[in-house]
Amino acid sequence: EVQLQASGGGLVQAGGSMRLSCAASGFTSRNYAMAWFRLAPGNEREFVAAVSRTGSGTSYTDSVKGRFTISRDNAKNTLYLQMSSLKPEDTAVYYCAKYVAETYYGLCDYWGQGTQVTVSS
Asked: Running DSSP on this structure, what letter comes out for residue 103?
């Protein structure tokens, strides 16, 4: 059974930093691209960042470029999202997701349970 367990969320002041982790199990995570999405109240789920299976390729939504860094440790089956210069508009539930292939140009087929990130002004 595919499981994606996100952690590391919490409350932080604007301008602060936070690192999210996502532990993957039930599949060979190093064979698949992975991503982070977020869902804020009243909004649709939004793509945040993606990383290829090797970690050599990344993609970000414009609003987080230069502030967030996605990475992965395939030896630990763990995905990360380092977030800096956080803004109140980054407040959301953050979900990690697995793509159906090694690149992030396709669809995701599994999402984790999410971790809440709240940025206070």
From this structure: S
